[in-house]
Amino acid sequence: MVTAKRTKKSRDSINSRLHRVMKSRKYMLRNDQTQKLTRQCKAKLVILANSGPALRESEMEYYAMLAKTGVHRYCGHDTELGTVCGKYYRVCTVAVTNPGDSDIIRSMPRTDW
């Protein structure tokens, strides 16, 4: 019971932070554009939906590791990630280039990236 509340609370905080990033319009949504930004080291954070293809996810994680960019696994499907981004379609990958007034990058747990 406690873990269900905790995951819902953490999802809500990620959703509100991601919504602030979407207002600043410093992001890219599509996979090819996200890969391009990550390879150019312009992405500060990459957000991946849980329901994306495994090969695409591992490829994005590899590019992010090379560019020393943070990767966050969104704990929801691609339709939920699209809704949070304010779109009416599925979104598998989001690259944040400038967080703006959001603290989304500082709030992510830092690992070796």
Count the beta strands: 4
In terms of structural class, how would the helical and strand content be classed? alpha+beta
Distance between the termini: 33 Å
Number of helices: 5
Low-confidence stretches: none
Rg? 13 Å
How much helix, percentage-wise, in residues? 40-55%
Strand order of the largest sheet: 1-4-2-3
Compute the average pLDDT. 82
Spell out the helices and strands N to C. Answer: HEHEHEHEH
Q: What composes the largest sheet?
A: 4 strands, mixed
The best one-word shape is: globular
Strand content: 5-15%
Entry keywords:
5 helices, 113 residues, globular, 4-stranded mixed beta sheet, alpha+beta
Describe this structure in words.
This protein has 113 residues and is an alpha+beta fold. It is built from five helices and four strands; from the N terminus they run αβαβαβαβα. It has helices at residues 2-24, 31-39, 54-67, 78-84, 104-107; strands spanning 27-28, 45-49, 70-74, 93-96. A four-stranded mixed sheet has the order 1-4-2-3, sandwiched between helices. The longest helix has 23 residues, at 2-24.
Brief summary:
By secondary structure, this protein is of the alpha+beta class. The chain contains five helices and four strands, in the order αβαβαβαβα.
Task: Describe the protein's topology.
Elements lengths: L1 H23 L2 E2 L2 H9 L5 E5 L4 H14 L2 E5 L3 H7 L8 E4 L7 H4 L6
Helix pairs in contact: 2-3
